[in-house]
Amino acid sequence: MLNGNHSFGQFLQKSKKIVLGMSLATTMGIALPSVSNAQASTASATTITSTVTTAASTTAATSTIATNNVTTSSTASAGDDIQKFVAADFAGRQAMLNNWTGTSQSYDKLVELINKDELYRDDAGNVYTLENTDQLYRYPAHTLVSNWPSDLNQVTLNNALRSALTLGQTKAKLKSDDASERLKAVDILADNIATLDKKTVADIYANEKDSTVKAALAQLQARMDLQSGDEMTQIAALKTLASSNSPDVLADIEGMAKQTSHSPELKQALQTTQDKVKSRIKASEWTGHVFSGFSTASILLLAALGLAITYGLLGVINMAHGELIMIGAYTTYVVQSFFKSHLAGYVDWYMLAAIPLAFLVSAVIGMIIERVVIRPLYGRQLETLLATFGVSLILMQLVRMIFGAQNVEVSNISWLSGAIALTPSLMLPYNRIAIIGFTIIILLLLVFLLKYTRFGLFVRAVTQNRQMARAVGIRSARVDMMAFGLGSGLAGLAGCALAQVGNVSPDLGQNYIIDAFLVVVVGGVGQIWGAVLAALGLGVSGTVLEIGMGAVIAKIILLVLVVLFIQKRPQGLFALKGRFVE
Q: How far is 500 from 410, CA to CA, in rounded Å?
């Protein structure tokens, strides 16, 4: 029992290790001979000596379970499946896990809460979820609890229930009409291959209709056959496993190849299969590296787009651009904190408010900097460089005074957590995919704004020939301020995106300002498409170089290459036509 939330963190119990014994293999053999008769197998397994009322029984049907004639709590009949599970006693929970009547999604949610130690209840039967070790929510309403119950206890499982939890998750997914859910069930079985029964897997394979799931089951059967001891069976299994790119399969083959008692035919089959699996895994890894390079390039492009506009239009080296990125990240943090405190039920949608606010806050601060600091220094690049460097120091110190010098965390929204598993060795995180898509959208909107709107026409006119633009009535000072605000707002959007991939600190902008300038210089001053190509080149090449050389050596080589490129082509990839040429 815990007394309040002040000392709560000291009493958190960690029970993440799942122990799967031989009971799982026995249960698998009984409960899953086929999908169609799973209900009958469960009924025969739960008929013992005494009766309880199951939590899922909506028709008042009863099943007998050995619990010394103890009846499941009446509170187990109310609420959703997870609430029923929490309210039930040991036998009731085991009965629910053996015969889950809810959806596979609710089962996945239960497994997630149990494995993360986030499921709690009080003596009155109320269910809670604990997030980030210090935020308690009522389940399922997900309303923030300010006064924690003094009788709050964590819902934990013993080894038997944890084995049943894993088995039940597999059974729930195997019953699904969705092939992707059944494929996830096969993955769960593969993680517990040592406890599986061959007949069980063969029966599941025989009942499966989807070709993708069937292929995964064939791989699972081949891994089991690899340990059979029969040479012909092992060679046949190796032929099946040759199309795999799973690290687990490679580990099985390498472990078997270390043995010296194999025949020449089996040794040759092991070597051939090992080479094929290695090449497939290597291809997946390089695909992941390229994706990571594109992700880095999208972040660099977001950081450099605003700088390309301000530098191209005004000729100002804005050393405070990195701090405008940092302000966008802190704006995202403030919006998230507001949603957690006042709109807890909508916290997963805070990003919809953070994106426009990050743009507006950074844009307003940028326009103030342009009006107060930069405007009196136009045409004096050294002075503007020093002035904006001083502004960057002021902004960093202000943030330290308001938020502190320590990092603050912006948590990923739930629907951007996780990754797409294209192969067992290739995972593409959702947040990185979202950043790439977000960058593409911002780029297209910016191109539309500059090319097809009146404001864009004025920006292009002032950029190419300021005196002529003034002569035809364009208020260049107003255009300068608005363009600087646009560039600053884009920096805020970059900070909003960066908050999703790392911690936010007062020094955040300093990590990207140099790379942003490199993108602008290599791409060509004021050239949007040049910035796109430069960001892709620097992002992908930098990621690839880091693989074999390390981050420091890769950065040095990249800087040397940029210097050599600028010596050969000072104007960048695309030359700007207009007053800069003159």
A: 7
Residues making up the chain, counted from first to last: 582
Reference 364, options 506, 477, 491; nearest CA is: 491
Residues 6+ apart with CB under 8 A from 258: none
Backbone torsions φ then ψ of 136, nearest 5 degrees: -105, 130
pTM of the shown model:
0.68
**What pLDDT, in 10s, does the model give residues 142-173?**
888 888 888 888 888 887 787 778 777 777 77
Give the helix ranges, DSSP H, for 321-465.
Answer: 321-342, 350-369, 381-403, 430-452, 454-464
Query: Which value, in Å, is the radius of gyration of the alpha carbons in the chain?
Result: 30
**Can you say whether the dihedral through the CA atoms of 40, 46, 48, 51 is positive or negative?**
negative
Displacement of CA 280 from its chain's centroid (Å): 24
Strands 426-429 and 127-131: unpaired
Q: Order the strands of the 119-121 sheet from edge to edge.
A: 143-144, 135-138, 127-131, 119-121, 153-154
3-state SS class at 494: helix
Amino acid sitting at position 188: I
In this structure, what is the dihedral angle of CA atoms 131, 136, 140, 142, given to the nearest 10 degrees? Answer: -80
Rounded CA separation 104/551 (Å): 43
pLDDT attached to residue 575: 64
CA–CA separation, 325 vs 318, rounded Å?
A: 12
